[in-house]
Structures are given as C-alpha cells and as structure tokens.
Amino acid sequence: MRHDTQPGLNRRGFMKLGLVGSGLLLGASMLGSLHGCATHQLKTDSTRPLKVLREKDAVILSAIAPVVLKGNFPVEPTARQQALDRFLVNIDEFLAHSSEFAHDEFAKLFDVLYLGVLRVPMTGIWSSWENASEEDIDAFLVDWRDSSFNLFRMGYAQLTQLTCLVYYSAPESWTADIYPGPPQHIPG
User: Fold this and answer.
1) Which of 30, 92, 107, 173 could cross-link with 50 by S-S, CB 3.0 to 4.6 Å?
2) Residue 18 domain-assigned (yes or no)
3) pLDDT in tens, 34-56
4) What is the pLDDT of residue 93?
C-alpha cells in the first residue's frame, strides 16, 4: 500500500531534475564553445585586453550592472561607457585573482545567458543583451532571485554579488553619499 498522496518531489524526481540540469549546463558550455565566442577577447577603451572575461561576458555584464547598481552609473553616454569600462576592468582583475574553478563556473553561467536558444526560455529576454531594456533585465533578475530552482537563485547571487562586490571595492565608487569607504584603523 502506497501513501504517496501528496504531490512533491521525491528522491527519484530530484535525481532526474539534477541530471537534466547538469545536462543543460554541459550542453550550454559545449554550445558556447562551438559558437565561437569563447576565443574573442574584449579590449576596453583603455586598450588593455581583459585577461579572463570574454567579449560575450562583458556584453552581459555591461547590460546587467546598471540594473543591479541602479543610479550609480552616469546617464551621459560617454561618461557611462567610461564607467562601464572601468567596471569591466575591475571585474576582470578580480576574476584573474580567483580560482580556475570560479572562472569555469562564471563561463558556464555566461554561456547559458548568452546563447539565444537558452537565454529566451531561461531569462525571458528575447532580444540580445545589448538591446534588452532595463525593465526586462530587472524582471529576469527578480525571476531568478525568487525562483524555486536553486540553480537560478545561485546564478542570481553570483551575478549580483560579484557586481556589487567589485563596484564598491573600487575607490572611485566611494562617494560620501553612497559609501564612505572602509573603516579606518585607529591604533589603540
């Protein structure tokens, strides 16, 4: 006699979901490498090539960062682009000093977000990242933050925490009204 009257995820269903999720991520990383985007390196306006970030990674971060950090980027296009370039260099420098495992995990996340075949069903963003509206990006972030799938919540945390950590660790972001900087050590 079975007592499984309540709907829910049993052990077998959980294992199937894990296998499907792993297969999806593996397929996304394979498609990303076949897509040809993995070898392009972006150069910022400072002509300094980025060490870790690929061109598609920079495109995604350039679209997401202003939404995550609402009101912290200049509105004027030239100043905004300069601020985004500094931000990308800072993220690249941060990732260059992190582990190879972290590089691989971020690459997989960006592969999933970049490919239209996966981006549309997983994020709801139909246009390319360059053309996505702030409202669409904000809706995608909220959906991933509030998702019942841990994988989406982890992706949200990676994107938003990396963005905030790198932005607020840069001294040029320390305006007195936003962040006065780290506490000063007072010798005792």
Assistant:
1) 92
2) no
3) 444 433 344 444 445 788 999 99
4) 92
DSSP state letter for 129: G
The Cα 139–Cα 146 span in angstroms is: 11
| pTM exceeds cut of 0.85 | no
Q: What would the mean pLDDT of 98-111 be, rounded to a whole number?
A: 89
The length of the chain in residues reads 188
CB neighbourhood size of 51 (10 A): 13
119 burial via Cβ count (<10 Å: 0-12, 13-18, 19+): buried
Residue 148 lies in a domain: yes
Burial of 32: CB neighbours in 10 Å, binned 0-12, 13-18, 19+:
buried
Q: Residue 111: how many CB atoms within 10 A of its CB?
A: 24
DSSP state string for 36-70:
TGGG-EEE-TT-PEEEEEEHHHHHHHHHHHHHHTT
**Biggest CA-to-CA distance, the chain:** 71
Residue 188 domain-assigned?
Answer: no
Number of domains in the chain: 1
Among candidates 101, 91, 2, which has minimal Cα distance to 52?
91
Could you tell me the two tokens for 137?
A: 């990006």
Any domain includes 182: no
The two three-digit tokens of residue 42, written as one number: 């972006």
